[in-house]
Amino acid sequence: MQVKIADSWKNILQKEFKKKYFIDLISFVKNEYENHTCYPKDEDIFAAFDFCSFKDLKVVIIGQDPYHGPEQANGLCFSVKDGIKHPPSLINIFKEISTDLETEYPESGNLEKWAKQGVLLLNATLTVRAHEAGSHQKQGWETFTDEVIKQISNENENIVFLLWGGFAKKKAKLIDKKKHHILESGHPSPLSANRGYWFGNKHFSKTNEILRDLGKEEISW
């Protein structure tokens, strides 16, 4: 398995590829893909970086794990391929967008259009074994994606970080709060959303308001 990552990210992440943890991680992932069904497809593992270039970055959304059902994961957190039934968390994301921005509920769950506008949809773990949630955690992916967050914080400014749920909120310590904007809420999963920790966070209008104040183009959610 070759690490193919978009050129705009290579400069800031190149040194990670040479570290022992990353070499061991890639060896583990390669073995998993050869011996088990894993998601996303190997060409989509680094898709979050392919669709969103470093220089165009405006927003970072942090997920935990790729979807582990057939044909769901496409390398972007919370996103599914066109024509695939929307998973529960994505349904709640779209419901909040509809209410917050007074727009129609989207037909497609493919979030590539967000990524192309400068939204990095980053899972902390970039791969998973089919039907086994969390099966590729603690193998090195978190070390890599934490470094991605740190580099974004160090090398950029005025990025909006959307931290949804306890897991994502822990990443706040990696971000320079003097340089960036952090919006936190509960997770969009049904468990959290039904307890009142998700709906009404207005993160989508708030993000656009921040971007507008910075003179940047808003995201078409």
Automatic annotation (TrEMBL):
EC class (word): hydrolase
SUPFAM superfamilies: Uracil-DNA glycosylase-like
Compartments, as annotated in UniProt: Cytoplasm
Active site: D65 (proton acceptor)
Classification via CDD domains: UDG-F1-like
Any one GO biological process: base-excision repair, AP site formation via deaminated base removal
A Pfam family this chain is assigned to: UDG
Gene Ontology MF annotations: uracil DNA N-glycosylase activity
PANTHER family recorded: URACIL-DNA GLYCOSYLASE
Function: Excises uracil residues from the DNA which can arise as a result of misincorporation of dUMP residues by DNA polymerase or due to deamination of cytosine.
Protein name in the entry: Uracil-DNA glycosylase
Gene: ung
